[in-house]
């Protein structure tokens, strides 16, 4: 499972307010919606014409695993049904640019790849791997996407990608029974979050399950704190490395994050436990064990719902959600996405991009849960429950007023590589949250090398 790291966008402050109200308003009921068929799926009349590709074989690469991969495979099956093509999913590893480079060097690139970072798309274009989208896919983009999402899939003014998947990554999911047992309410500010964490831990349930083994989750923690505390202008500057990671604003954000990470009793398994916990486990251990789970809360995006579905907990009753608390004057909303890019100049690759840009494809995966589409033509009823439906509505309501996730904008060597760059520096910080200056120095040294300045 990789973000989406799902893939991360900064929504407008107005959309944040809407997301908070909608999300909290949806928490009162629902069982995940699996017992009711959602409209907008494959059984409806197709909204996009696709060519016949009888006998053509395609490969699609992405870093998705587990339920996320399984649900995407259902989309590919529908594409096969409509076109007669045969499609194989190829599991990729992070960093995906390195994975694709080895495939291309071996003369066997996949037809289409879904890239979880803007930096990966830029690299694919610079390496002359990517093919511009064809007129049919472009027509779907023009029909179904806001200008901002189209711009994110373009390099140098040429459209190369289709943002198939998005994610709101400013959400904290919580175990309703654990909160009730401790008498805790969802916090709206960082100070309230720390108070709630103290109460939860004192009640015998560690407050937070942190997926420290996956460095990308730690970049999300930092980005939410930084955006809310330092503000969007500083966020933009740091994302472009126009200010250094030794800037005082970074010091403040790390110090704030250390208020949570520095309390061993707040973390499930303490710092060492957090550092050995991968993302899927961080979710499942929060929603097993009744009112005495391994932790009461887990931070991450809407796609957490996919992993909750692997437990007995039900989204909307046992598993509830609140927006990431405000650290500064305004609460953050960070999201992102996976962009589909053709790596072969084939009819089949372009047809698949066209399908992925349609509402038909997105509706199929939306019904399965743990998926949000930036495609504004997707019927909200396709989402399986009110929580995910309203998260999707808030994303669409943001229009073009968003920024993309900071680490995903960075060169992959800094923002998207396991055991290196930002991922490693923040893992070291989780192990020793008191070393703010050392963390800043390491981040700046790695950033300067990766950005070439």
UniProtKB/TrEMBL annotation:
Name the keywords, alphabetized: Signal, Transport
Superkingdom assignment: Bacteria
Span of the signal peptide:
1-26
| Keyword flag Transport | yes
Q: Where are the transmembrane segments?
A: none
Q: Name one Pfam family in it.
A: SBP_bac_1
Similarity comment: family membership:
Belongs to the bacterial solute-binding protein 1 family.
Indicate what this protein is called per its UniProt record.
Answer: Sugar ABC transporter substrate-binding protein
Q: Which organism is it from?
A: Streptomyces subrutilus
